[in-house]
Amino acid sequence: MFDYVWLLVAFPAAGAALLLTWGKESDRFGHLIATVASALSFVWGLVLFIGLLGRDGDDRSITDSLFTWFSSGAFHVEMSLVFDPLSALFVLLITGVGTLIHVYSIGYMEHDERRRRFFAFLNLFIAAMLTLVLAGDYLVLFLGWEGVGLASYLLIGFWQHKPSAAAAAKKAFVVNRVGDLGMALALMLMFAQFGTTSIQLVNDSVGSASAGVATALGLLLLLGACGKSAQVPLQSWLLDAMEGPTPVSALIHAATMVTAGVYLVVRSSGVYDASEVARTAVVVVGLVTLLVGAYIGCAKDDIKKALAGSTMSQIGYMMLAAGLGPYGYAFAIFHLITHGFFKANMFLGAGSVMHGMNDDVDMRHYGALRKAMPVTFATFGLGYLAIIGFPGFSGFFSKDKIIEAALGENLWVGLAALLGAGVTAFYMTRLMAMTFFGEKRWRDEVHPHESPRVMTIPLIVLAAASVLGGLLLLGDWITDWLEPVVGHTEHHELAVPPIVISLIVTAVVAVGVAVGWFTYGARAVDDTAPTKVSPFTRAGRADLYGDAINDVVVVRPTMALARGLEWFDRRGLDAFAVGVGSRLGELAQGLRRSQTGYVRTYALGIFIGALVLTLALMAVTF
Amino acid sequence: MNEYLALSMILFTIGAVGVLVRRNAIIVFMCVELMLNATNLALVSFSRQHGNLDGQLAAFFVMVVAAAEVVVGLAIIVSIHRARRSVSVDDAHLLNL
Fold first, then answer.
1. How confident is the prediction along chain B (97 residues), in pLDDT tens digits per residue?
2. ipTM score here?
3. Which domain holds residue B8?
4. How far away is chain B from the Cα of A576, in angstroms, using its nearest Cα?
5. Residue B20 resides in a domain
6. Which residue in B19, B21, B94 is closest to A597 by CB distance?
7. Domain for residue B90, yes or no?
8. Buried b / exposed e along A28-62 (16+ C-beta atoms within 10 A)
9. Contact predicate A275/A214, CB 8 Å
């Protein structure tokens, strides 16, 4: 059974290939092929997962070597897939949420004439993401990593006729390249130090390498993770990526692709265990992103951008947990999975709202939608309760665990994470209140209506998952399950029992909700965004000047350098080459005059030459 | 001995000057022949002086080559004459600027 792990990747890959090469006649049923391909992958993943459940803890890592990708001297890369507890969870999340989003997209993209291509890209994305999480070699992982980047580029820029979408796609691609540079350097370092890029071998041998190597490797991988997971300082692409169709935002920029960075950190646990510095860097990056994302989420009126800020923030939580070491890995993955459910749910809910509101994304034009869209409201509400960590919902368990772990590690880190939870509650309440409560602020021509069933059913399933996701923690199942991969977990004993922490978190969340409700729910919301606002709000609206900082720190110096080089090339190198050429040309023009065409001139030349030769010979001889 | 060499030099000089100053291709050609034969004379004279046959052998070679050259050269001159009704070497200067 486990010899056929590759089928997981093969189904969506074949779907993508089929849809991209088949002509127009597949427009009618192309979306069904893609959905079935993704569903088959999910079913097969489920079968394998159950097979894995039936095995002993130590026996749960299956490596399939398909073929030798390439072999050059000492460098040998196997196209190997690893199916172990960690990748199994990811496979289920990606294909499960992915399939639901495929189903949803059937309705959402119904009137788009390029729907077949959209589904081909979705399948391509699923295939690439599965390659990424199943890879047994960092180079194979990199293949999936780049594939994910490509699919993301194609999907963000899917509505390429909009200049903003095209620019956003380009931005995502370029910012991701910076992260990929880190990955590429990490690969080179691995090869230089260990002579292999196999994930297993690298993580086994990094412990015996020098601390400097482990730290460098950890930081380079972190750079890669920052790019893919939209962590500070490479966060700026995520907000713009909302230009893509909403299912894309749900699938790629909330539930799966952005979690690749977290996956990378957890998968490279050996590297991070070996380097305290790299781990601290991960914690700092996670913490900063957590707060920055939450801050931005508070200031946005665009429903998708507010959710994007929240995604950044939640992934910050995961990074933070992953940086806490063996104790945090399992919680990072736990939060990743619950977040995958509730964020996909909320993004699809936002898509459903936009669908009913003529693609308007400004929350100030919403209000009182709970009656017009009951199903969307109910499912979104469940997702909302999950993300703020309402007791009993999945987010409650996963976020509590991270805050608890952070408090155990360092008081200040824990308090910052706690603050993040409060801010999360605030901005999500704001989003909820502005969209579903209050008074109607609809534009005249808009008549909100509930979305078709093909869109609401995925919402219902995801809402159920958002509620029940917390069950994974039941009896510490998830920590036990992941133990063979991330190592044994030693529990930090806190000064206070976990229940007290939960109470504190809940209290902070309650404060956030209350502030949000009394600011936006109980009071009338302005129809247009107020212009006289504090500098703090203005900073939030401008993404905390992320683009401006990038512009000053990177873009302008790069442009200046490029212009300088261009000038040097034109005035220096080119001028030299062209100058040599034209001088030679002038010389030749002069020499050309000696060619008269008269035989006697040449004959005279021969005679003079012969004479000179003779005289020279005589001079040498005598 | 020296007389032979002097004659050879005179003939060679006449030939060389002829090649350089005359325009009629036939004359130029004859002057080339004159130079070749002047050389032959010198070769034969030296051969006699040194008492071996190497010079005479070389003279034969020169004659054979000259004969072949005459055949080709005259053919060229004839065809040039046919083409442009002139045997002046100055008229055939298409290779100039």
1. 789 999 999 999 999 999 888 888 889 989 999 999 999 999 999 999 998 898 999 999 999 999 999 999 999 989 988 888 888 877 777 766 5
2. 0.82
3. 2-84
4. 30
5. yes
6. B94
7. no
8. eebbebbbebbbbbbebbeebeeebeeeeeeebbb
9. yes
Residue B37 lies inside a defined structural domain of this protein: yes
Smallest Cβ–Cβ distance between A603 and the set B19, B90, B95 belongs to B19
Picking from B16, B20, B95, the nearest residue to A595 by CB comes out as B95
Amino acid residing at A456 = T
A599 neighbourhood in chain B, CB within 8 Å: 28, 89-90, 92-93
Amino acid letter, A94: I
Q: Which two tokens stand for residue A366?
A: 């919403």
Contacts of A598 in chain B (CB under 8 A): 89-90, 93, 96
Which among A596, A600, A604 has the least Cβ separation from residue B96?
Answer: A596
Q: Phi and psi at residue A325, in whole multiples of 5°?
A: 90, -165
Rounded-to-integer distance, Cα A465 and Cα A97, Å? 10
Chain B positions touching A596 (Cβ under 8 A) are 93, 96-97
Q: What is the pTM of this model?
A: 0.79
Query: In chain B, which among 14-53 make CB contacts under 8 A with chain A?
Result: 16, 19-21, 28
Total domains in the fold of chain B: 1
Dihedral of alpha carbons B24, B26, B32, B34, sign: negative
User: In CATH, what number is assigned to the domain containing residue B18?
Assistant: 1.10.287.3510
Is residue B15 a part of any domain in this protein? yes
What residues of chain A lie within 8 A of the CB of B90, using their CB?
598-600
